[in-house]
Amino acid sequence: MMRRRSWILALAGAMVTPLAMVATDAPAPTSAEAAGSPQRANVVLITVDDMRADELRFMPRTTRLLGEQGVTFANSLSPNPLCCPARASLLGGQYTHNHRVFSNDLPYAFSAFDDRSTLATWLRDAGYETVMLGKYLNGYGKWSEFGEDDGTSLDYVPPGWTQWRAAVAGLPKTHPDHGDVYDYLDITLSDDGRGFTNYEGQYQTTVLGNLSVDVISAQARSPKPFFLYASYMAPHTGRPPEPDDPEPVLDRNGRSVRFGTPARPARFRGIFDDSIRAAPGASWHDPDISDKPEYLRSLPLINDAERAALLELARQRAESLAVVDRQVERTVNALAATGELDQTLLVFTSDNGYFLGEQGIRQGKILPHDPSLRTPLVIRGPDIPAGEVRYDPFLTIDVAPTIASLADVSPTAPVDGVSMLEVARSGDLGWKRAVLTETGPRGAVRDTDESGRPLDVEDPGPTDVRWAIGIRTDRYLYVDLATKEEELYDMATDPDQYHNLAADPAHADLLAMMRDQLRLMRACDAAACRAPLPRSLATEPGESIVRGR
């Protein structure tokens, strides 16, 4: 049961004051609003956690209401495919080496994120009501905020948020409102930093859907535009355990492998059993792993018991997304019912993708191969055509600049991403820029700084903590590892990324070009991150490799 009455239900029940007027520190109307200028569009950003791009097929309502009524980006990529770094990039528009959130753990994660300039602050300063629901950055509540050496952030509300209902970690188990971000049936949300609401026994995806509908209903009564960020946890692994979860199995080396799954409501279990007959990566088989770096060569081939577990995992992930699909529909219906739909930009995406057997990786993310790097992204809104597909790259760092462009606001700090609004509205321009891929600390340590300069023996200075950095173009992926190994793939001839060409003399010139691009990008900032590719690596509109498949 819910231990404390939800803030939004209490407000909706009172039906006295519009939600937008509750915040006592809301900014005054802008001069444009005072003069009666047309209201800027609302923004609803819906994110999920660890969803692969190819899993969008399990969300027919989202496809129908957003994809068929808007634009689908076929090359949506998460440059650092890990929860916390990706979420920092989404909010601040910067690559990891600029926002410094390198991992999900200390000394990085939530505590490392300088939140003084984010999409929320830009929109709030421009007169938007800004509402956060659900998962924020890893460690929120548990660890201190940016600039503090100790303490927790349980009562912290980041700048820019009018209403703050982020999922909280770190409450003691003895606290009456204790819950956990990764428990589907026991989530606790902050009440604007003044307390908590626990939803024990309620499925958190539905909780966030309910709150989204209530927020939209309340905000529609305000003359101000609003920004709603609804951040769902599905299909991320989460408690509680369920009877049909796969048991641990032994790999070919005799080691126990446990497959983490999301929890789902009972009525959704089994709905994809007939349509999902194997996990996407179950048939992945590299015919020759001798060209791969050691960390991939050391993985044993997936056996039949693991394939069965992967199948159950793939089904459960799809089932959890089916619940999100219904919340997207409810969100769109709420916008339509309040008359806000036509003046609202809706964006649906994920923080990163996920491996389900590819590259021999049973489950996980982090690495820059396609299953982990690719995310779903559909966008619907004012002047965006219906039912079209774009092939230009849309990166996590582009989300904030794109929304800022729609709202006609300027970021208050440098951003590395670009606005993709005109591409969504008018069509592809071609894949003209490199994508920098970054994976944070892991095992081997580099002997260079972030620019690639060797460290001084006597005064080494800060080292580059990134374990894997690389360059992604439309056709190629190049990866430089801290172990001094390299990877190079040609997705035109090798879409499964089986064949590492880094040591192939026939591709020496290509390798040199990709190394040059990495030298230019590895410590880039702002405009330097958007520098055009050489013509030999760029593609024109209509030439995308994905489009040709």
Description:
It contains 13 helices and 18 strands. Helix 3 (60-67) packs across helix 9 (304-337) and helix 7 packs parallel to helix 9. With 549 residues, the protein is of the alpha/beta class. The protein folds into 3 domains: 7-13 and 43-239 and 320-426, Alkaline Phosphatase, subunit A; 249-313, no CATH class; 435-530, Arylsulfatase, C-terminal domain, CATH 3.30.1120. Helix content is 23%, strand content 14%.
Low-confidence stretches: 1-37
Tell me the number of strands. Answer: 18
- The radius of gyration computed from the alpha-carbon positions, rounded to a whole number of angstroms, is 23 Å
User: How many strands, which pairing sense, and closed or not: the largest β-sheet?
Assistant: 8 strands, mixed
Number of H/I helices: 13
Biggest sheet: strand arrangement = 5-4-8-1-11-12-2-13
What is the residue-averaged pLDDT?
92
CATH homologous superfamily label of the largest domain: Alkaline Phosphatase, subunit A
Supply the CATH class of the largest domain.
Answer: Alpha Beta
**Structural category:** alpha/beta
User: What is the CATH architecture term of the largest domain?
Assistant: 3-Layer(aba) Sandwich
Which range does the strand content fall in?
5-15%
Report how far the terminal alpha carbons are from each other: 50 Å
Helix content: 10-25%
Q: Quick one: overall form? A: globular
CATH topology of the largest domain: Alkaline Phosphatase, subunit A
